[in-house]
Amino acid sequence: MTAKKPSTTATWNDLDDAPELTEKFFKTADQYKGSQLQKRGRPKAAVTKEPVKLRLDADVLAVLRASGEGWQTRINDTLRASLKLAGRV
What we know:
The protein is mainly α. It has 3 helices and 2 strands; from the N terminus they run H-E-E-H-H.
């Protein structure tokens, strides 16, 4: 019969064996409020966007990508503006 391996390779018997509590440790440590784990990162947006597959002409796509970061957001804004002009949004 095979025995289960312990989840850690060794136990700390001496307090001097504990890792040093550095800035890096605290930056990556889990944070709790009571018993609730506090999530890191950007909070969820109230309005989320839906990923879609859209086929565009190569020349149009090249110009949009060349305009820099945020080109997908600018496409969304342009489509929204054209729908407002048409009275659909």
